[in-house]
Amino acid sequence: MRWLLAKDLLILRRSRVTLALLILYPVAIALLLGLAISRSPSRPRVAIVDETPPGQTVEVGSRRVPVSEYARELFSQVQAVPTASRASAIAKVRSGEVLAAVIIPPDIASRIASLRRASIEVLYDGDALEQSLVQSSIDAAIARANTGFSEQIQRPTAATLQALLAGGETGLLGGPSEAIGLSRMPAALDAIIARQPPGRVRTELQRVARSAAFDARELTLSGDVLATVGQPIGVRSRLLHGRRTPLDAFAVVVAVSVSLMFVCVLLSAGAVALEREEHALARLARGLLSPWALLAEKALLGAICSFVLALAMLAGVGAFVTLDWSRAALWLAALALAAGAFGAMGVAIGALAREVRAASLLSILLSLPLALLALVPQDSVARGFYDAIGVVSFVFPFKAALQALDAAVNGSAPAIGGSLAHLAVLTALFAVLARVGLRRAE
Amino acid sequence: MEVRALGKRYGGLQALVDVSFHLSQGEMVAVIGPNGAGKTTLLSIVAGAQRASAGTVEPGPDQVGWAPQQQAVYSRLTVAENLELFAHLEGVADPRAAVARMLEQTGLGERSGELVGRLSGGNRQRVNVALALIAQPPVIVLDEPSASLDPAQRRRLWEFVCNLAGKGTAVLFSTHDVAEAGRLADRVIVLVDGRVLLDGPPLELARIGAGGAEGDFESGFLELLRGAQASAPAPGSREPGS
User: For A234-283, what is each residue's pLDDT tens digit?
Assistant: First the structure.
């Protein structure tokens, strides 16, 4: 078997273009997938046109909140591109320089001050999918900016209410320098009432004191009410099981798994098909090598090459993303079993296909959808379709390899043992399938 | 070599029926027959590349060298690398010496470093035959070895094979060229519809065509075929694609 393995490695070394493609193609695909996953457009690039006059403010009682605060909030949620005019913003959206443009109209302050609903204008472009993605990410950014601006308005309002309740220095609000404060007013009135003789004046004062006590009590609650209205429902997250994998680290695992699969499946399938194409299968089958040994050698070829590539990728990416090197033994176990399963899948494809081109095409046609299907999140598709995806992912090794590697690299759930056992079972099943395919060729 | 009552069935097709013959040391035996007669099936079973449905072949494939009809060589390896690989796989004691010997015997020494894929059809066939001989087996089986060769290459190949037979190697070969079989073989096996119609010296075949007198091999072969077609019970026992 080792002579045949040495022969295959020699042929591989001589086929430089194939070798380069075999490495570059999966690495490029893997990196693209990884980038797509890890770089979601959380801070979209947006042109912002602020048409409000400079220095314009929204009056909140006796206080003023600059409208520029709103623009500042919006700037903090997106990659803001300050733009002078609406026409220029439209041009930037059309050219693709920015995902969208937000136009803050000149009358926004007066509308807020007059308690009318103010609105901003959002412009975007692109096809249906792009529009959908851009719209949701812009909507999210604007919602966050609205919340921030709302807090800007709440803060002085709450401070004014506090001053009215507590009294003291209210000169800044246009009040007296030593205001009594609504909350202390009932007690002050009670002291005055106690000195009053019974009669109409005392009765009137008692009525005023009761009203003041009620007003103070109700106004005390208004601060909380304001905060509740500004953000009625807060979010407190809790993960129910396992460990959450950081997106960057998960992207690394996806990239490595995809590369492992492509290289291993393509090489193993191609190597078996090449024996057929060169008519050497019959010569080997006459006692020089058992069919099982032949299949094992081809699977081993793919597994060794893909294992080395995947390990190099992990080590290389480890320079940019924080990986736990103390788990390296688990990485090796996950990579080895995944490579074995992909090798078995590759030889099954190679045994069923009659020539190298067919084997390569079949490998790509199978591998690419498998990688994409394994990444479909739960609840992003209909339940029945997701179940079907689950079945497909279960009978091919990619999902199990991804889970094993994620567990090995990031310690995420499910535990690595189950995934490794799954990979071992799939290796055996694909090996049997490959043997059946080879028997057809004999 | 003893081949006894060999049979091969592909599903409903009976490709070989009760084929028996023997092959002595240094003997050259040609298997001839029309397309689909079962020549390739017979030779690949004798070489151990296919399993028979019935019958036995002695000795086993480890004592038989085989050059299949479709050249089974690695085109991305050099001539020497192909020979060395199969020397290792055949378990030859000194693979390097075996490679040197085969390069010398086949006259491929000057081409030893060339990739087989870049060789002419004739030279590729020489490599194909050389791979069958690398372990110096007592029996070699050559399936249409001269099919893709020009006359000069053909002559060189047969000189080489006859030389091997002269040194004691038993040679079983198939050919479409009846005259070639008559000229080179010590014995001719005529196979039609998977059955042996004739197993004897070429002269016996020549006499059939000339009504008992000494005639040419092709006439004898055609006469034999006509007789077989006339007495055939029913069509349908053909081997596909050989």
Answer: 556 555 554 455 556 777 888 888 889 988 999 999 999 988 888 888 88
What are the pLDDT digits (tens) for A217-226? 888 777 677 6
CB contact under 8 A, A285 and B76: no
Question: CATH homologous superfamily of domain A45-157?
Answer: abc type-2 transporter like domain (3.40.1710.10)
Domain assignment present for residue B14? The answer is: yes
Cβ contact, residue pair B61, A287, below 8 Å = yes
In a domain, B205, yes or no: no
> What are the structural domain ranges in chain A?
2-38+246-441, 45-157, 173-226
Q: Cα–Cα distance between A347 and A297 in angstroms, integer?
A: 10
Closest CA to B29 of B153, B175, B149: B175
Q: What are the pLDDT digits (tens) for A392-440?
A: 889 999 999 998 988 888 877 678 888 999 999 999 999 999 998 888 7
We report the CATH number of the domain holding residue B154 as 3.40.50.300
Query: For residue A257, which amino acid is it?
Result: S
Q: How far is it, in rounded angstroms, from Cα A368 to Cα A381?
A: 19
Contact B122, B68 (CB under 8 A): no
Q: pTM, whole model, 2 decimals?
A: 0.68
* Chain B residues with a Cβ under 8 Å from any Cβ in chain A: 44, 47-50, 60-62, 66, 68, 70-77, 81, 85-86, 88-90, 131
